[in-house]
Amino acid sequence: MREKKRVLIVEDDRSYSAALVETFNTTSFSAFAAYSSDEAYDALSKGGFSAIVLDWSLSNSHRGEATAKGILKKCKELLPHLPVIVLSGFAGIDVRNDALQNGADSFLTKPISLELLTTHVNRWVERVAAVEEGLWPTEVANARPLDEVERRYVLRVLSLTGENVSRAAKTLQIHRHTVASIKAAK
User: Fold this and answer.
1) Shared-domain flag, residues 82 and 155
2) Which DSSP helix (H) or strand (E) runs through 33?
């Protein structure tokens, strides 16, 4: 079984946070809650997260910058590629722009379907993984030769199928021996 990706939920509404954690824990994620910026900073310092869901109206802290904006800035300093999805009950364009201009990767308004949120976060995590693996070039210098991209793609699908060669071949619609030879060469 694959290891679950970790997501940090930074939300001061404990009941909403509990619902988010419970929902994420039923998916391919393992969720951890932080109810204040202090707890968020502590969790971030320990690392290991694949994404952060951040309540933009978070306000309780005992350290300097007590806002979600402070957490977002610190996160982008320490972990610039970590996707941060901001949630807010305020849908105004100024609120959205503020979050995005300060480094949020995405901005969603509450209330939101928890299924939609988990799907959205998963897509961000997969996109970052694809960039890191060279499957989603962000600039020309990062582009890879096609045969290397194909090889990495096959290895990624193999990992997603639990190293099941037959299932990966069926998913990719290629011959099983092709997948097996790529697996053997890794």
Assistant:
1) no
2) strand 29-34
